[in-house]
Design brief:
Distance between the termini: 66 Å
CATH architecture: 2-Layer Sandwich
InterPro entries: Ribosomal_uS11, Ribosomal_uS11_CS, Ribosomal_uS11_sf
Helix content: 10-25%
Keywords: Plastid, Ribonucleoprotein, Ribosomal protein
Shape: globular
Family: Belongs to the universal ribosomal protein uS11 family.
GO molecular function: structural constituent of ribosome
Mean pLDDT: 86
Number of domains: 1
Largest sheet: 5 strands, mixed
Protein name: Ribosomal protein S11
Order of helices and strands: EEEEHEEHE
CATH class: Alpha Beta
Strand content: 25-35%
Length: 133
């Protein structure tokens, strides 16, 4: 008797993003790399409320690293959240960090502080050897 193999189907339902979520105070994390910009909105406890990235907004290739993509990403991440005050934590050396901050400040949310949390080594690992071109 041959057993019929049941194909496991993932029952992961795709949820639409919540229309709006109200939080009195939140934290906006901007991660600006050389190739992409990721904006995450969390509440004070650190639970993610909304997030967006340049690739998620439809940008591909080198356009993901542009300031315009970072601005669009910040607006998209903030759109689903209604909050009065926010703290902004910016991480990374990318081009989009200033553009994302500009878009956040234009959105009407009162910023309590803006902090740069880019990790800096205190003479940690040895850097890779220099390129020979």
């Amino acid at each position: 008797m041959a057993k019929a193999r049941l194909k496991l189907v993932s029952r992961r339902t795709r949820r639409l993003r919540k229309s709006t979520r109200r939080i009195p105070k939140g934290v906006i994390h901007v991660q600006a790399g050389f190739n992409n910009t990721i904006v995450t909105v969390t509440d004070v406890r650190g639970q993610v409320v909304s997030s967006s990235s340049a690739g998620n907004c439809g940008f591909r290739g080198t356009r993901k690293a542009s300031p315009f993509a970072a601005e669009t990403t910040a607006v998209t991440a903030i759109r689903t959240v209604v909050m009065q005050r926010a703290e902004v934590l910016i991480k990374g050396p990318g081009i989009g960090r200033d553009a994302a901050l500009r878009a956040i400040s234009k959105s009407g949310i009162r910023l309590t502080f803006v902090r740069d949390v880019t990790p800096l080594p205190h003479n940690g690992c040895r850097p890779p050897k220099k390129r020979r071109v």
